[in-house]
Amino acid sequence: MLTFTIRRLVLAIPTLLFISLVIFLLLELAPGDPMAQVPLTVPPEVKEKMREALGLGQPVHIRFWKWIVQFFWIEPQVLIDHYFGTAFSEGKLRVISWQTRSPVMDIVVQRIPQTLWVVGTAYVVAIIIALPIGIYSAYRQYSWFDQLGTFVSMVGFSVPPFFSGVLVIVIFSVQLGWFPSIYDTTHVVNSWDSFVYQLKQMIMPVMVLALQITAQLSRFMRASMLDNLNQDYVRTARAKGLSEYVVVMVHVLRNSMIPVVTVIALGIPSIFGGAIITEQVFKVNGIGQLLIGALQANDLPMVQTLTFIFAVLIVLFNLIADVLYGILDPRIRYD
Amino acid sequence: MTELSQPQPTKPPRSQWYDVWDQFRQHKGAMMGATLFFLIVAAVYLGPYLWDIDPTKTAIRERNQGPSLAHPFGTDQLGRDLLARMMAGGATSVSVGITAMMLSLILGSFVGVLAGFFRKLDGPLMRLTDLFLALPLLPLLLVMMLLFREPLNAAFGLERGIFILIVSAIGITSWMPTARIVRGDVLALKEREFVLAARSIGTTNTRLITRHILPNVLSPIMVSATLGIATAIITESALSFLGLGFPPDFPTWGRLLFDGVDYLQQFPERVIWPGLAISLTVLSVNYLGDGLRDALDPRIRGR
Lengths: 335, 303
Prior knowledge:
Chain A: Its main location: membrane. The complex is a heterodimer of chains A (335) and B (303). In chain A, 75% of the residues lie in helices and 0% in strands.
């Protein structure tokens, strides 16, 4: 198991390098000019100097190498400096955003908590809702509850977040006026009232995201439970007189959870991607919105770094899912 | 064994597709989904012949009207008829969905068949698929939309350029699941006797693939085709919703929804109609795919 994990970790490095190269080359084709906003009165030789100050003067492979060094070598040093008060990164050039002329990672670190709060809560809520629904619909297959569950998850699959989000805004903010339609990230929780306000503003984005995740997870849970409910060991467990609760909730559930846990792990990065739209609808200023803003402002270092962070998340959670599979299911051993 | 003395079957043989259709009809949701989908497709493509108001014609005096006989869905902030815009937008959205699905299907089946059939190509092609699966797709789609919009617009004209861009971007980023499924099926089929028989009478690889392998992997391809339409429509609408899709004077459902958000307080129906259209189309296609999967699965058929 350990050798498998190490092998996969080593394999992940060329994958990530390749992905970063793809993203870099794609951005290299960008027609946008970071100097487009500079007034025409600025003489061309000054423009050329500004261009070099942004690091645009060198050929492609050198800039790619510089980006790699900055991202993988200098940024971790900044992190170490931040935690331990050392000075490894002093005077070294970090990845600089063209929009704000400040380090990209600083902005990302500012934005991540908002995304994590909303997306993380949504994921937890979705898991809490989806698992019981999946278990019960499998246990009572083709009952009205199961049919309803199938329909609701079909709807969850089909209604895109940019419609369900807008729809809940129409109903709950415009018509009923219960919840604020815009997520206020500057809100500080320091009393009961402000806590209630925080809850209120989180309900809508969390529910919109959770609907989608619940739809997928409950289907998966149901299918996995159905696979196990007809197995011989279930009949054995019933025959030796175990109570129905123990049979379903202990014997079947534990075996059914194996694929579901890996699906949960695999879904985490796609949630970050899918949250781009939800963040846009509810004006949450998380990393999804940062990406959209950077795209519109032609801020290539920011786009490059953010897209790469998403890629790292995907590769990382794929790895986690594979390892989890091996740990949870003793029949699967990779070596 | 005397019962078998009559060797001639009395009934003509039933084809596989007849069985599939029988099973498909049993699935109520799938039948409803299919009907709804064909109704929507008919409405968006044939509707403009019946309702021949130009969707881009502005009439400032008639702006922001509610539903009436002259304009059943009302008019927008420039006095354009919303029913006509819904139909024009639907035609674009559905065309994008179907074309992008075809592209991703062709790519996916091509890669899948090659990887499954030729052992040498299997490793590299599947690594490539894994790499594509590890790419963050929505951010990359956004980046592609931003980067290639202007060159393609210059080359093919505004509307055609953005259509080609969206279709190819969605196609290139969504072929991986099809490739994986097709590869798995081809790997299993390749070991079967009929392939060996065909090879022993000297069938070339090309003929073997087109004549014997492809027809047998048609059912997973068809299922991923229906689901592909659904994802393509949602992706296109998401791009339009983020303001990176079609230009404003060229309506699609996602664009109409995006435009409607600004008037959310006064005219919520402007958001609800296009949103409902997207959701209903995707829902019907999903049910269609669900029924198709059941109908094409011989283990379930006949139950």
